[in-house]
Amino acid sequence: MLTDKGRSELYRYKALWIGVILLAVLTGCWDEKEIGEIAYVTAIGIDYKDENYILYVQLLDFSNVAKQEGQKNSESAPLFVGKSSGKTFHEAVNNLYKTSQQPLNWGQIGSIIYSEAVLEKGIETIQQSIQRNPEFRFTPWMFGAKGSIEELFAVSGFFHLPPVYTIMYQPEDTYKVYSYIKPLRMYNFFSIYNAPGATAVLPSITVDKNAWRKFGTDEQPKKTLRINGGFQITEGKYQDWMSYEDLTGVRWVESKTNITPVKIIDNEKEIGIVEITSPSARIKLIGNEGEAKFEIKIKAKGIVADLREELNQSKIESLVKKQIKEEIRTTYQKGLEKNIDIYNLKNKLFRNGVNSEKLKKVQLSEDSLNKITVDFHLESSGILD
Question: Where does the UniProt annotation locate this protein (predicted)?
Answer without folding.
Answer: Membrane
